[in-house]
Amino acid sequence: MAKGYETVIGLEVHVELKTESKIFCSCSTVFGAEPNTQVCPICSGFPGMLPVLNARVVELAIKAGLALNCEIADYCKFDRKNYFYPDLPKAYQISQYDLPICKRGCLEIDADGQKKTIGITRAHIEEDAGKLVHQGDITSSPFSLVDLNRSGVPLLEIVSEPDMRTAQEARTYVEKLRSILLFAGVSDCRMQEGSLRCDANVSVRPVGQKELGTRAEIKNLNSFRSLEKAIEYEAKRQIFDIEDGVEIVQETRTWDEEKQTTRSMRSKEEAHDYRYFPDPDLPPLKIGKDWIETLRGSLPELPDQAQERLIRDFNLPLYDAVIITSSPEYLAFFDDCVKLYSDAKVVSNWMMGELNKVLNQNNMEISDCKIRPNALARMLELIDEGTISGKMAKTVFEEMFASGKEADLIIKEKGLVQISDEETLKKLINDIVVQNPKVVEDYKNGKKKAAGFFVGQVMKATKGQANPALLNSLLEERLQKEL
Prior knowledge:
Elements (H helix, E strand, L loop, with lengths): L4 E12 L38 H13 L3 E2 L2 E2 L2 E4 L9 E4 L6 E10 L2 E14 L3 E5 L7 E5 L6 E7 L6 H18 L11 E11 L9 E6 L2 H20 L7 E6 L4 E7 L9 E2 L6 E2 L2 H10 L4 H12 L3 H7 L3 H13 L3 H18 L11 H12 L5 H14 L3 H8 L7 H14 L1 H8 L5 H12 L6 H13 L3
Helix pairs in contact: 2-3, 5-6, 7-9, 9-10, 12-14, 12-15, 14-15
């Protein structure tokens, strides 16, 4: 960021609510079906078709609002947001304008080691549009196909205050938001499937200026990395333009993943451009306080509560606790594992290290992993028992991940049992020391690193199966005899 400027960031996050049917009809919301197989006259916009509200949508929206510390409205309504796109058959979207179901919430993030509260202006219910599938390119008669399977899928749009000042803060906010929504059970938040998408409003201003700069909205960011990179680029672009005397215009931009740049799509619409008015086919919603309190009581342990428990009960660092509470499935894996293996920090280290590595490499969720908590706990026991070393355990772990086999079976099949017999190791050490008098002389002359040569030779001779702690102890004992 150029000196003398600060970035101001507000986010609009669109979350698909976890319902089996759409918001105003009974069509399925299952992802991945053949195009245009989950549509009906209502969600495909036939004239005269009347919407009927899915009560489950309202329930999940309330639960999300409660999890985000929002006020839940006792009265709200639906509005028509009028605009035309090829993937919006009715030429208007049913949304909520001036009376949303949730407002004035907040969530807390960690910003450079400090707690920072990000305000949530509102969260409102709306229907999703369809999807355009673009074919060809500019040289081959391009055209677009429309898939309406997603049209009418229920969304909750969560609008933050412009409280974020860096791309990293924005990323942390969305990561925390995703975690809360997963724990609350209101969405699967699968960004790769589009069930969590983010629009970023970005502006810059001189440090100390209270007035906001002219903002650009970057649409449909569907990964944490893209969100962070797009904001960083857009802030720099605006600063360069300001420094060059170019006026910043309010507009909607898109992120080009291949070129790692934002580019202009259209001028930014204002609320009056949409000509909102109350939807005449849907009555207002009156939400009873008893129902709200019942739903509040049904909320499970949320990430902040879980983090406090992990720090209190297992003495884990905050960093570990944040990662372990990234999803309810990840936390459940940890909890089940420490019931069987009591060293919580060791479990945490393996989950954040080896387990995260293979999950990321294979683009997998922990629920799809073949390694189960009892299998990881057993492998850790085998390390403690001296059956395998920590280095050997990584080989065993990789095979467990690939095949789903238990550690004991893998160790037997691959002959990976650690050599911990003192007499066997003493003989090997002695033979190697005798065969390398020059290295012994180096050791005697103060080159202590020469001991590493002997360790390497013993490990080579045992195919890495010598007990490292015992090997180092016996080697030191043998080398002392040469001094």
